Amino acid sequence: MKENILFAPTKEIAAWAENDFFPIGRVVTDYDELLRLDLQQVGSLYGKFSQEQLSAFIGFGLRVYHLESESRDDTFQDRGERFICYHRGENNEPQQSAIHVLLVSGHIVPNLVPVFDEHDKKGVTGIVLVTTCQMTEAENVIRNLAHDRGIPVYKPWPAHHSKYFGNLERAQDLVKRLRRLYPASPLVLNATGGTKPFSMAYVDAFRHEANARIIYVDTQSRNIERLDTDANTPLPNVLTLREYFDAVNFEVISIESENTEKAEAIEKRARLTRSLAEELPERKGGKKQGIKKASMAGINMLAQIGMDAYRQGQAGIAKLEYAPDGATIALLNQAQQAGLLDKWSNTEWQFSSLDAARYLGGVWLEEFVYLSLGDAVKRWQPEVGAIHLAMGVEGRWHNQKGNSQGVKNEFDICVVFNNQLLLIECKTARFGGQDHGKAGSNKAGNNKVKAQDVVNKLDLFNRAAGSLFGAGWLVSASRLPEHARQRAEINRNVVLDGIDGINHLVAKFDQWIEDTRSKPVPD
Q1: Does residue 190 contact residue 103 with C-beta atoms inside 8 Å?
Q2: Class of the CATH domain delimited by 253-258+362-516
Q3: How far apart are CA 470 and CA 474, in angstroms?
Q4: Checking CA distances to 482, which of 204, 211, 316, 414 falls within 20 to 30 Å?
């Protein structure tokens, strides 16, 4: 996280560290100490500088806020002092970048998108967070994400939770203070958050300010509406996957697909992965004259035996009751060539590692979805911009006080595009109780999965992580019972099951991208 620095060689300048609208950061009093800092880790630099010092820091690429005085009255507060922002540009002229005022609420994404977009395009002077005591955690999340982007965040501006006239007075005071300190900076009020009386009070206060914009983020229609004019704009695509999860209070601990060794393994066995996706879904087992065609459930069972053996400190060996048939032998040969089996015979399989057993036990479907969507992402990105795709996202939820709830969750496949999340759960297990969704087991010892549990889990995760308009998909190699499919559709989740569903995956993803992308706002 980059740090904001106030260069304060005098006590009077150091007093700005206690000002309401100085970004929280570090005070440096000695110029030599300032030069010793790693400037690549500095977000913004505040202080009073000579022209030579200004040129040096601007030339390095820093955003520098130079303190100027228009008058010399006796009291510090009446001096008319103000910060003028400089950064590298034509003739290093002062830039009139905006101050964004955000009404903090539990829905953080609409607060982040406009200010991040403007900062990426032309810079932002800073952010004022108007917040109540109930929104402390949301305030901290916004502050941390803004700091990571190098955007100054001022001390929070307290507000009444619901009283209109109390908030109106506070809003008018805020406008006056900002105008005194940053007279050249446009003001942008994001009125999306807060209760209606809270929001209305700030809109009314800012509506009479000449150099101010008032915006409302309509996430459903993917527009940023101007409340002071009729100039609406499409919602920009700015949030990364990690930023999105931070915004919904999910702390990402690790992302499997970002691991170099794991990414190489996925690519190495990509051919096998696609063969399994073509061969195994809905494949029925059967035996004839001592030769058995391995079903998907049978392979899952053997992989589970291998995993259990490794976890017990033994070699990952699974014994066979019957010799494999020709189609199964072809898959085994590919698995051995990919380094997943040390050896196999008509009587046993020996997995090369726990990871290999996990892969043949169902991870192959996650990798198939990841590879298939990866190809689609490469095709779409030149047209629609960044699409963030990840596999194996592990993390933990934080409660409203910012404390970890301890329970870890892992999402199979995640896509963040246009500030919205697509969450995909992948399953290769057979579903028990085709009529009633009850869990059970077959004679071979392969545990079946209760379909309703899978559907409920997806819905729970999507409601928690998907914010207002996220999407949840279930990709299953086995057919889902009809009652569970209906339940998923009632919850607005998508089911892609069996060979037909898997074959329809990329087309469905293309449709999601088309539906999620921002469209030009009609006149």
Answers
A1: yes
A2: alpha beta
A3: 14
A4: 414
Cα–Cα distance, 262 to 358 (Å, whole number): 13
Two tokens, residue 233: 């704009």
SS3 of residue 322 by DSSP = coil
DSSP per position, 187-213: EEEE-SSS-HHHHHHHHHHHHT-TTEE
Beta bridge partners of 421: 416
Question: What is the C-alpha separation between 309 and 316, in angstroms, rounded?
Answer: 5
CATH number of the domain located at residue range(s) 96-236 in this protein: 3.40.50.10770
- Quote the pLDDT of residue 523: 59
**Tokens 């494949």 identify what position?**
283
Short-list 299, 308, 311, CA closest to 359: 299
- Beta bridge partners, 416, equal 388, 421
Q: Computed from CA positions of residues 135, 141, 147, 150, in that sequence, does the dihedral angle turn out positive or negative?
A: negative
332: β partners: none
* Distance (Å, whole) CA 48 – CA 66: 5
The percentage of the chain sitting over the pLDDT mark of 90, rounded to a whole number, equals 32
**What count of other Cβ atoms lies within 10 Å of the Cβ of residue 133?**
10
pLDDT on residue 441 = 40
CB 232 within 8 A of CB 521: yes
Alpha helices in 218-295 (DSSP H): 241-247, 260-268, 270-279
Q: Where are the beta strands (DSSP E) in 441-516?
A: 449-450, 471-476, 494-497
CB atoms within 10 A of CB 372: 19
End-to-end CA distance of the chain: 41
Task: State which amino acid sits at residue 183.
Answer: P
For residues 116, 121, 125, 126, the Cα torsion angle rounded to the nearest 10 degrees is 0
Write the pLDDT tens digit of every residue in 190-214.
999 888 888 999 999 999 888 899 9
Are 233 and 200 spatial neighbours (Cβ–Cβ below 8 Å)? no
CB count, 10 Å around CB of 490? 10
Instruction: Tokens for 461, please give them.
Output: 């995760």
pLDDT in tens, 11-22: 877 777 766 666
Question: Where are the domains positioned within the chain?
Answer: 1-94, 96-236, 253-258+362-516, 276-358
Q: What is the pLDDT of residue 285?
A: 58
237 Cβ partners below 8 Å, 6+ apart? 384, 385, 386, 417, 418, 419, 517, 518
